Amino acid sequence: RDAGDYAPPDPLCFTAGTMESLGLSPWLVSSCAEMGLREPTPIQAACVKPALDGRDIVGSAETGSGKTAAFALPILQALSADPHGIFALVLSPARELAHQIADQFAALGAPLRVRVCVVVGGADMMPQALELSQRPHIVVATPGRFADHLRSSNVAPAVAKLRFVVIDEADRLLELGFADDLQHILSSLPRRRQTLLFSATMSGALSSLGESALRTPFVADLAPQDAVARRLTQQYVFVPAAVRDTYLVYLLRQCVEAEQSVIVFTASCRSCELLAAMLSGLGVECAPLHSQQPQRRRAAAVSRLKQGTLSILVATDVAARGLDIPAVEVVINHNVPAAPPDYVHRCGRTARAGRAGRAVTLVTQYDVDVLLAIEERIGSKLQPHEPAEAEVLKALPEVASARREALIALTESGFLERDKERRSGRKAEREEAEGGAGGGAE
């Protein structure tokens, strides 16, 4: 790249007083104002002008920094000058995030009466194919489902005049194994297009996709790898593994008393359902969020948290990236994430857009080495938080009883058996793939 193509990783380099200074049309500035967007964030100040000038973009910034508007604004301005469909395709790693991106396009583009279509898994393909055939202006999709449409539906003619493709949360898409679907989609799109790639980190995304997808892009790297938000208070509680749930209940009851919104992250779908059922049995209102739920249930949980009718969400890492929940005040890690980047992504649910936030990690005697690896990676130490043990353990009998009842309920509902079958199936698929690759049986 030429030196002028690279934006150094200093957000202070990109400040603009108003949305007008980005070169946006008056109608779009007014639309931003109606949504409370009066001053551009650093990633918007860095990327909107080059995108308006027709440049491909690689933008990296911490979660909650306004990346969606950074690509939506130039797309909508270009659409207003040449309205046709399908004008832009946005690829997202998660169904919930796809719906949130679509909502933001619809709100910002309301003066244009922009037509937005969401194409994600978990829904019937036939209505989606019909909607795509009607040429909506903006399509927001998960890569797997859109690639399925390209293979099985007559979608290719509908994207023949496509002007923009956005690859959002690019690093997460690659982590989730969407590389083949991405390459298939990109190879099916017009060569004369503008590509905007956004990510929470720069790691891997540009090197894996840049050569085939981007033409001399403008690069704005505003998120040092594995950085956590500046106003995030990071704490750990050292707990014996046998009473970890009791400490969780104690912390959550404190948050409820303080009227704080919380996301509890846990390691698996099974643990997520079990904790949510246990907490509900203890009178702690919450909702689970994991990949085995129907789409409507997941969307309802996210919507309730955003609207403030629910204050506690128990989630697996499916929710660790991209969810538009700006008001979460506390993140509690029920387990220590095995990979340091997962810790950073979880913490990205709080202390967003300059707000203060708190992340508390429950650390057992088996997690010390993992915690040290996280601290080394992020370059800072978590502060100890030491609740009075005697006070915490007062709740031990009721927590143990609630957990037993939750386990019985999940067994009777068939969830645990279904989860076991799902995990067995995934294990068999991995073993088959390894054998097919020449790994052989042990």
From TrEMBL:
Residues in Helicase C-terminal domain copies: 251-393
Superkingdom field: Eukaryota
Positions occupied by motif Q motif: 17-45
Record-linked SUPFAM superfamilies: P-loop containing nucleoside triphosphate hydrolases
Bias type Basic and acidic residues, positions: 418-430
Keyword annotations from UniProtKB, A to Z: ATP-binding, Helicase, Hydrolase, Nucleotide-binding
CDD domains xref list: SF2_C_DEAD
SMART domains for this protein: DEXDc, HELICc
UniProt xrefs under PANTHER family: ATP-DEPENDENT RNA HELICASE, ATP-DEPENDENT RNA HELICASE RHLE-RELATED
Family the entry assigns: Belongs to the DEAD box helicase family.
Record-given protein name: RNA helicase
Species whose genome carries this gene: Emiliania huxleyi
